[in-house]
Amino acid sequence: MATNILTDKFCKTALPGCHYDCDGKDRNGFHLLVTHDGKRYWRLACRLNGKRKLMGFGQYPKVSLQLAREKAAVAIAAVGKGVDPVEKARRLREAAEQAKEEAKREAARAREEAEREKRRQAVEAGNTFEQIARRLHAGKKGKTTDEYRDKMLRQLEIHMFPAIGQKNIKDIEGKELLGLFRCVAEKTNHGRKMTYMAKKLCEWTAEVYDLAHVEDASFSVNPCRAIIKHLPDHDTRHMERIRFQEIPRFIQALEQDSGHPFTKAAIWMLLYTGMRQASVRRAVWGDFDLDNAVWRRRPEKADKEAHDLPLPTQAVSLLLNIRSLTGQGADDLVFPSPRSNYSPMSEAAIGQAIERMGFQMVGHGLRGVVDTGLNELGYNHRMVDVQIGHKIKNSVEAAYNDAKHFEARREMMQAWADYLERAAALKVLPMKKQA
């Protein structure tokens, strides 16, 4: 063992592979250890209760010679009293950590209590995001379809209420909303990212903020107007649908499908009329005059007026066949959910049935099939537009809704249904082009 009274200069130049007493006169066990790789550590070798102990005080030069001597002096004094300074330091550290953790828990409890109190006050005042959103939902009754407003509420319940529903709307920060919308945009549905739903949620949330401002003029912040600019763009795809030449194969697959009768009937009704899926799913028996083969379709969001549709004989037979399977009251659904006669068929049911049949097309694509088919068969495009409910000028629509053209539309749709019937039998013959 080399014995030296160390200085900073010596500590820097001490040779590797040795240890050097810091105070050679006292020989108290405090020394500098220089490893073979040149690193320098402060050590104290001592005996406590008959056992040898080796303590460390850090690495030179991070721990200076003077500070190391001070630490060693404290440890030597403790050992002289029979106290293990390492164990004492460990207990002190543990006590400090426990005190620190308890302070954190106490602060967290205080924050949680403050948040609960804020939520309680917000609930009492009716200012939570969820309360205002539900008032928005109620206020939309009669201004839009029940299906649309219920869809809005359901999506808010799924994506927004769990995170911010119980918060005072004034306490919700824009960055929190942006994070929620971006999270939704990254989710997938049938293999596609939900960027469209993210933007719809942003639009609906903006309406919630607008209502909050109407109810309380002092609240004027609506971060959604800026947030929507920073959401991922929606990848718009053209509606997939079968080609005109594929109609026979589609009809044959539909007849052979083993799905639920209501779902198959709804697909047939879409083919017979060219209507939107929503119109078929929410149709009730009171909308139909089967004696006169007319469907008095109720107004939709896209076209605000009622729309009388002539029904081909095949559609009338279809309706008579399923009527005994559903409720038969005027307000009972014609195409209810397979699970309950009192719930509408789900939006996905028709698309899933078509996919099961082996075709890549959503239910709305059938509307395009009818449109294309009627135009392919030579019918006047304006009469076709009126029949399937395309938005056109009122004067044109009025002209093609009069008695004369209503009967012409009836003949058109009967010819179309007959064509589908021949397609089902794989006996599709060229139809005479109409003027």
Level of helix content? 40-55%
Mean pLDDT: 82
Strand % is 5-15%
Low-pLDDT stretches: none
Number of helices: 18
The outline comes out as: elongated
Largest sheet properties: 5 strands, mixed
Assembly category: single chain
- The total strand number stands at 12
Question: What is the string of helix and strand elements?
Answer: EHEEEEHHHHHHEEHHHHHEEEHEEHHHHH
Query: Main sheet: which strands, in order across?
Result: 1-2-3-4-5
Which structural class fits the helix and strand makeup?
alpha+beta
> What value does the Rg take, in angstroms?
40 Å
Distance between the termini: 116 Å
Walk me through what this model shows:
- The protein has 435 residues and is α+β, with helices and mostly antiparallel strands.
- Helices cover 52% and strands 12% of the residues.
- It is built from 18 helices and twelve strands.
- The protein has helices at 8-13, 65-80, 85-125, 129-139, 146-159, 161-164, 174-186, 195-215, 224-227, 247-256, 261-273, 277-281, 313-323, 349-356, 365-376, 381-388, 394-400, 403-424, and strands at residues 2-3, 18-21, 30-34, 40-48, 51-60, 188-189, 192-193, 288-289, 294-297, 307-310, 336-337, 340-344.
- The longest helix is centred in the first third of the chain and has 41 residues, at 85-125.
- It is elongated and about 120 Å long.
- The model has no long low-confidence stretch (mean pLDDT 82).
